[in-house]
Amino acid sequence: MISLGIEGTAHTLGIAIVEKINEKCKILSNESRMYKPAKGGIHPREAANHHAMHLPSLLHESIKKAGVEIKEIDLIGFSIGPGLGPCLRTVATAARTIAIKYKKPIMGVNHCIAHLEIGKALTGSHDPVLLYASGGNTQVISLLEKKYRIFGETLDIGIGNCLDKFGRAIGIPFPAGPHIEKLARKGRKYIPLPYSVKGMDVSFSGILTAALSLIKNESIEDMAYSLQETCFSMLAEVTERAMAHLEKEEVLLGGGVASNMRLQEIMKKMAMERGAKFFVPSRQYLVDNGAMIAWTAILMHEAGYRMSLGDTKVRQNFRTDEVEVKWS
Ligand code: ATP
Ligand code: FE2
């Protein structure tokens, strides 16, 4: 089965063509374009305009790169939520248009579940605890009784958002995460910051406020280092606790922040010390991408899910644990 997937929950528009062949995920193309605000944070309407503007050309590029014809595509998947309303509606409209024009079935996919499924498919992980660390989301997720349940999550902003806001305050353009990673490598001194783990949940806004109040007196490198060490240790703690409680022996990383090598190192060490396996897909499948949507759409379709156009209304606050996972 060949699927076309469109991702567009926030800043990234991604379009991919994916084939399921001998139970394996074969990515035929995975193209993306990212909206970068000139200054400040993401403006939902501007991001949506960016997606609308780039959609036709990116669609052509992705189809051309895959070397398929539209008639060979069996399914149209799109990110139905969670995400920014205007972005979601733009992508959903495009998906509906393609589905109607070419008479293809349509499938709205939960963005968070898609991050998890592409990670499983590309790394060979079977039953992991996923640390999903991105700009807007920070969750510890695992499959229990047919649902991807959230065992811990941020009580306020996502980890990536915390890094981006810190970056913006010190003049680093969006997305700040990769720049902060580079600065942190040069940090030498650990500056204590509030360590905010509450049961299985984490919180980043207090750390951000504390870090911002200290930037005048400390070097940027030391601050970046301390911010990363504090936030990533918190994530390792809650992920490890979920693994222990659930007796799961695999940890999988997902989301843009998971491309941070220091986070990978900490999580890998935690897994090894527990005798567990560590998995992480390559960067292009950690950040928002169309392949994860195309692939999850196939899994859902094959498990018997069907959607009429009336079912494709976008869901801004769509929770990971609302979907019954019939395919796993
Ligand atoms: P979601 O909609 O799932 O919340 P998102 O819209 O934030 O995702 P992603 O592409 O998954 O999109 O992640 C982007 C985030 O990842 C940004 O906050 C960015 O700063 C952060 N990021 C990217 N690379 C790194 C890195 N090397 N280190 C830390 N953070 C990173
Ligand atoms: Fe994402």
What does this structure look like?
The chain is α/β, with parallel strands linked by helices and 328 residues long. The chain folds into two domains: 2-115 and 288-322, Nucleotidyltransferase, domain 5; 126-284, ATPase, nucleotide binding domain (Nucleotidyltransferase, domain 5, 2-Layer Sandwich). The protein contains nine helices and twelve strands. It has helices spanning 44-66, 85-102, 111-123, 159-169, 177-185, 205-214, 220-246, 261-274, 290-302, and strands spanning 2-7, 12-21, 24-34, 75-81, 106-110, 129-133, 138-144, 147-153, 197-198, 201-202, 250-254, 277-279. It has a five-stranded mixed sheet, sandwiched between helices. It has a five-stranded mixed sheet with strand order 8-7-6-11-12, sandwiched between helices. It is globular. The mean pLDDT is 97. It binds adenosine-5'-triphosphate (ATP) and fe (ii) ion. Adenosine-5'-triphosphate binds next to helix 4 and helix 5.
Topology of this structure?
Elements: E1 2-7, E2 12-21, E3 24-34, H1 44-66, E4 75-81, H2 85-102, E5 106-110, H3 111-123, E6 129-133, E7 138-144, E8 147-153, H4 159-169, H5 177-185, E9 197-198, E10 201-202, H6 205-214, H7 220-246, E11 250-254, H8 261-274, E12 277-279, H9 290-302
Parallel strand pairs: 1-4, 4-5, 6-11, 11-12
Antiparallel strand pairs: 1-2, 2-3, 6-7, 7-8, 9-10
Bound molecules: adenosine-5'-triphosphate (ATP) and fe (ii) ion.
Keywords:
alpha/beta, Nucleotidyltransferase, domain 5, 328 residues, binds fe (ii) ion, 9 helices, binds adenosine-5'-triphosphate
> How confident overall, as mean pLDDT?
97
The helix-strand sequence is: EEEHEHEHEEEHHEEHHEHEH
User: In percent terms, what proportion of residues is strand?
Assistant: 15-25%
Query: Which ions, cofactors or small ligands are bound in this entry?
Result: adenosine-5'-triphosphate, fe (ii) ion
- Judging by the overall fold, what is the CATH architecture of the largest domain? 2-Layer Sandwich
User: Which shape, going by the Cα principal axes?
Assistant: globular
The secondary structure category is alpha/beta
Strand elements, count: 12
CATH topology of the largest domain: Nucleotidyltransferase, domain 5
The main β sheet shows up as: 5 strands, mixed
CATH class of the largest domain: Alpha Beta
First-to-last CA distance: 18 Å
Give the strand line-up of the largest sheet. Answer: 3-2-1-4-5
* Helix content percent band: 40-55%
Question: Using only CA atoms, what is the Rg?
Answer: 19 Å
